[in-house]
């Protein structure tokens, strides 16, 4: 994947006067370090579905996996547009991130093998995956893996309060 530098904008309507835009490089560091993400998908009847999951940041995109029969996988089969969020879950300090994009299934064996290694390096041996049949296996069948390259992203700083928008 080609890494693109986004257009960065500070929205002064939603911050303190001394706020500055968060650098994309800082946001990338936070995405790489975050342990938990919240995935928002859309159910067939249009209602939202939100669930926590693990994800890794690699080569300019977030990657996550899910069981093929899980609600999020079924939602993605109908509508691949998603939002992934992560942050510090605190009112003061830190930065919360929102990533909007399209979830694209990853099936290449070499790419999946590299991602499985990243999962285990980040989350430990508990999250060891084998690659088989175009997905991760770990005891409960094949889990599809998805890539979400940011289309638009937001950073909500809280010391001082700020809102940065990155457009890709």
From TrEMBL:
Chain ranges of the Pyridoxamine 5'-phosphate oxidase N-terminal domain: 26-127
Gene Ontology cellular-component terms listed: cytosol
Gene3D superfamilies assigned to the protein according to its UniProt record, in alphabetical order: Electron Transport, Fmn-binding Protein, Chain A
Keyword Lipid metabolism: no
Record keywords, A-Z: Oxidoreductase
Superkingdom of the source species: Bacteria
Xref: InterPro entries: F420H2_bilvrd_red/Heme_oxyg (IPR052019), Pyridox_Oxase_N (IPR011576), Split_barrel_FMN-bd (IPR012349)
Name the UniProt record assigns to this protein: Pyridoxamine 5'-phosphate oxidase
């Amino acid at each position: 994947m080609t890494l693109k530098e986004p257009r960065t904008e500070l929205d002064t309507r939603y911050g303190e006067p001394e706020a500055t835009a968060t650098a994309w490089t800082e946001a990338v560091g936070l995405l790489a370090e975050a342990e938990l993400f919240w995935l928002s998908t859309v159910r067939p009847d249009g209602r939202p579905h939100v669930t926590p999951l693990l994800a890794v940041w690699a080569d300019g995109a977030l990657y996550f996996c899910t069981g093929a029969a899980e609600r999020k996988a079924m939602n993605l089969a109908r509508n691949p547009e998603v939002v992934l969020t992560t942050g510090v879950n605190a009112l003061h300090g830190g930065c919360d991130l929102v990533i909007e994009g399209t979830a694209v299934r990853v099936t290449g064996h070499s790419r999946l093998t590299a991602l499985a290694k990243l999962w285990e390096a980040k989350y430990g041996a508990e999250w060891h995956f084998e690659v088989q049949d175009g997905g991760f296996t770990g005891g409960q069948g094949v889990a599809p893996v998805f890539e979400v390259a940011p289309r638009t992203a937001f950073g909500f700083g809280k010391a001082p309060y700020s809102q940065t928008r990155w457009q890709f």
